[in-house]
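4.2 Preliminary Data

To establish feasibility before requesting continued support, the project team ran the inverse folding procedure on a target of 260 residues. The structure was first converted into the token representation described in Section 3, and no sequence information of any kind was made available to the design step. The complete token record follows.
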């Protein structure tokens, strides 16, 4: 296991970072990357076991992380989550709103129950999380940074069979831009990343293997492959860092050129 004690630089030493959807995939990679640069990380999600696995990975590598069970589609959960971060570490310096679900199929086959589920988590969850995070960050002398995880589907690209999901991710981009404009004067800087296919289970077609996905991506992406989760994580860290201080409402697409 690579140690987190000696990364090339420590941009987030002693800063507190909240990562929703931190139990797997991009969220887990983001948590590991922030911890590698000295952050105190709180990973949140609905499944305790997955969150504990992320925390164990961080700690095994020498970083600091704790888990907090929360459902971002519930306002009371999100408020309690922000409070827990502040009580544990004294502030909320960075928030990464990564929690999301995928729902495929044409809209004629999308049930009302499935639509409301993806809408509640992907859109309402981001709105509620940002609202709670902003209310805390604007009271802090140093403000804070928020990075929302959207997708290249929606604002940047359309793909048959993903219309409902794409609509929710386009909404995340819109929420990001609007909230960024509303709250930058209060010291809260908000941006988004929009990954394309990455090396997570979400990018696998039904019944597809990783080898099958790799073969498909040779033609589907100009880059010829999926993005790795650490690559997406590094983009998140950049947007949250002081080096991106003048980036406000940016939506950074990370898809190997697939949406061009």
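Position-by-position output of the design step:
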């Amino acid at each position: 296991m690579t140690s987190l004690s000696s990364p090339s630089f420590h941009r987030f030493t002693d800063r507190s970072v909240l990562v929703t959807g931190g139990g797997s995939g991009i969220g887990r990679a983001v948590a590991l990357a922030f911890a590698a640069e000295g952050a105190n990380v709180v990973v949140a999600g609905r499944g305790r076991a997955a969150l504990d696995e992320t925390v164990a990975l961080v700690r095994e590598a020498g970083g600091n992380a704790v888990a907090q069970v929360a459902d971002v589609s519930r306002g009371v959960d999100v408020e309690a989550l922000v409070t827990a971060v502040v009580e544990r570490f004294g502030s909320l310096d960075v928030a990464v709103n990564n929690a999301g679900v995928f729902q495929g199929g044409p809209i004629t086959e999308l049930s009302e129950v499935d639509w409301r589920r993806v809408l509640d988590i992907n859109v309402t969850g981001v709105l509620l999380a940002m609202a709670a995070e902003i209310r805390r960050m604007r009271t802090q002398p140093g403000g804070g940074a928020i990075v929302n995880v959207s997708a290249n589907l929606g604002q940047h690209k359309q793909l048959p069979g993903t219309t409902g999901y794409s609509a929710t991710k386009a909404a995340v981009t819109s929420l990001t831009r609007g909230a960024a404009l509303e709250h930058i004067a209060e010291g809260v800087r908000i941006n988004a990343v929009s990954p394309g296919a990455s090396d997570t289970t979400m990018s696998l077609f039904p019944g597809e293997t990783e080898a099958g996905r790799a073969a498909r991506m040779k033609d589907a992406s100009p880059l010829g492959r999926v993005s790795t989760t650490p690559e997406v994580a590094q983009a998140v860290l950049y947007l949250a860092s002081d080096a991106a201080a003048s980036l406000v409402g940016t939506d950074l697409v990370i898809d190997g050129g697939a949406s061009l």
